[in-house]
Fold this sequence. Notes:
It is built from six helices and nine strands; from the N terminus they run H-H-E-E-H-E-E-H-E-H-E-E-H-E-E.
Amino acid sequence: MVTTDWEVLEKRISCRSYREKKMIEEEKLEKLSAFIDELNQESGLHFQLQASKKVGVPAIKLASSMFSGTVYAFAALVGSDDPVSAEKIGYYGEKLVLYAEKLGLGTCWVAGTYDKKSFWVEVPPEEKLWGVITLGYAADNTPAKQKMIRATIRRKDRRLEEFLEARQEFDRQPLWLQKGVEAVKLGPSAVNQQPVNIVFQEGKVFARIWKKGNGLEFIDLGIAKLQFEIGAASCGVHGTWEFGEMGGFRIK
Ligand SMILES: Cc1cc2nc3c(=O)[nH]c(=O)nc-3n(C[C@H](O)[C@H](O)[C@H](O)COP(=O)(O)O)c2cc1C
C-alpha cells in the first residue's frame, strides 16, 4: 500500500493494460469527481470525468496497438489553447494522476492514441480537448507487449544530471534540489521526450523547456513543475511555482 507522495511518484507508470471486468466503484468515482471539481475551480480549466455504466463497455476507445483491457473511466482535459493553459493542463492533470494512483487506480496520459469519436465532451468556445487521462484497475499481470512498449520508450531516458542546469555538480547540490530533479525524471512526458530542465541560478530555481517539437512540451512543463514540488517537499522544502516558461519556484 502506497503511503507517501514520494512513494506514489516512484510507483507510478503509464498503465496500458487494464482489467477486463473490474469497474471503478461508485465511491471512488465520487471522490474523483469531487477532486476534479476542486481542480477546475482552482485552475479555471474544464476537466470532465466520464465513466461507463456497464461491464464490458469501455468509456473510451484507445489504440489497441498500445493498450489492452477495458478502460471504464477517464478525464477529458479541456482548456484554452495557449501555452499557460497547456502548462496548467499538465500541472493539474498530474495532480489528478497522483490522486487516482493513491486510490489504487492505474492511469495514463493519452494525447494521441485514442479515438476522439468514441465519446462526447463539452468544449467551450476558444477552448480545446488537449487529451485524456485514463482511469482504471491495472491488469494483475502486465502483458509482455505493454512491458515492451514501456521499456522501449523509457530506454531513451536522459541521465539524471542532464535534468539540472547549475554551476555546481549534481552531487554537491542540496538534497531537496536533487530530490526535486529526480522527481522530474520519474514523471511522465509526451513520447518520453523529457523536454524540461531545472535551472538553479544564484539560489533560485526555474523550469526551462530545453527541447521544443511535439507541441505538448508546455503540458510536460506543468507536469515537471508538480513533480519537482513534490520531490522537494519530501525533503521538507515547500514551495509554489509561477506559471510560464522560466517561472520561478518560490520557497515558502
Ligand atoms: C502529454 C502526454 C501525452 C501522452 N500521450 C500518450 C499517448 O497518446 N499514448 C501513449 O501510449 N502514451 C502517451 N503518454 C505517456 C508517455 O508515453 C509516458 O509518460 C512516457 O513514455 C514515460 O513513461 P511512464 O509514464 O510509464 O513513466 C503521454 C504522456 C504525456 C505526458
